[in-house]
Write the structure tokens for this entry.
Amino acid sequence: MTIFSRRFHELRTQKNVTQDELAAYLDKKRATVSNYELGKTEPQFEDLVKIADYFQVSIDYLLGRPGAVKHFSSFQDSSGVQEDNALLTSFLKSTEALLREKGNLGEDKLASSLKFMEFTFMEDLQESNRKK
């Protein structure tokens, strides 16, 4: 088993969700979810984002990166981060409005793009906090 497969299984069972329910959410077959848990396959980036959103955890946590914070809310305990979160929220809202107005992205791609921007910001913030 990989770190991802262990954490994925742990989160699913903690949330009391069946493989079938999670497969339906991810628009995958139950066998795919089972293979994720067994470490036979790993999700594509878009599915990894969906999994992180579903369980409200960071992608870093799912992948087992050293120093990764399990829940995004844990970032808010750090000094100065609330101000950074307010800036990030404002940026993401403005970006979403611009992309909706000017872009031809579907809802899934828009959500994935925004989540990726949030992930990148949080990853940079986490790295900055480690250096302090």
Confidence is low (pLDDT under 50) at residues 73-79. The longest helix spans residues 107-131. The helical segments are 3-14, 19-26, 30-38, 45-55, 59-63, 81-102, 107-131.
